[in-house]
Amino acid sequence: VDAVGNRLQVVNYLSLEDYLASVVGSEMPKSWPLAALKAQAVASRTYALRKVDQPGSYDVKANADSQVYLGLEAETPSTNRAVRSTRSLVLTHKGELINAVFHSGSGGLTEASGAVWKKQLPYLVAVVDHDQHSPRHQWDVRFSKKILRRAFPEIGGLNDIKLIAISSTGRILRVKIEGPKGDLLLSGRELRGRLGLKSTLVRFKIVES
C-alpha cells in the first residue's frame, strides 16, 4: 500500500503466470477454443513483460488501459491450461519483445502503427482481420443536438462534419467540425475522444430529428 497524496494506492503483487491465468479469461470468452486461449496467453505474456520495471509503483493497470485483470473469478481450467502449455513463450522481433497490442475488433482491417502512433513498427502493419462475427464489427450511434453542444462547446455544437484526411485503411486522421459559432479542426483521436466512438473507422450522416 503506497501513500499518494491524501489517498491510499493498493498494488496487487503476484507472479506473471498467476496474473495471466486471469487475464486470458478476462480478455476473451473462457469458452473459446484452447488454441485461441493459448494465442491470447502468449500475446498477454509478451505485453506484460514489456511493462515490467516501468517507472511508477506498479507495472500494469487492471483495466483496458493495460490488460483486463478480474482476479480469481476469471480463471478456469481452460485458461490455466492455456497459460501452462505456453509457459515462457513470447513474441519477439530481432531478439526483443514486441509491443503485443491487441483488440476485440477492427472492423475487418487493422491499422498500421505509424498511422496511430509516431513510429511505424515492422510487425504492426495493416492486415485483413476476419472478425465479421464480432459484435463490434459493425455498429452505429446517434447523437442529439444537446450531446453535440456538449462535445463541441467552443463552436456551439455541430452543423456539419467534413473529412480532411483518412488513412490507407479508411480511418479518420483529421476532420473539420462546422458549428453555429465557427469551425474546429480535430485529429481522428480527438474526435473519437469527444464523441466516445469505438473506433475512427467511421462515417457520418446528418439526419433531421
Describe this structure in words.
By secondary structure, the chain is α+β, with helices and mostly antiparallel strands. 26% of the residues lie in helices and 15% in strands. It has a 3-stranded antiparallel beta sheet. It has a two-stranded antiparallel ribbon with strand order 1-2. A hairpin with a 2-residue loop joins strand 6 and strand 7. It is elongated and about 60 Å long.
Descriptive keywords:
two-stranded antiparallel ribbon, 209 residues, single chain, alpha+beta, three-stranded antiparallel β-sheet
Global structural class: alpha+beta
- In helices, the fraction of residues equals 25-40%
Overall average residue pLDDT? 91
Distance between the amino and carboxyl termini: 52 Å
Radius of gyration computed on alpha carbons: 20 Å
Content of β-strand:
5-15%
Count, helices:
5
Q: What is the H/E order?
A: EEHHHEEHEEEH
Low-confidence stretches: none
Number of β-strand runs? 7
Overall 3D geometry? elongated
Q: How is the biggest beta sheet arranged?
A: 3 strands, antiparallel
Oligomeric state: single chain
Strand order of the largest sheet: 5-6-7
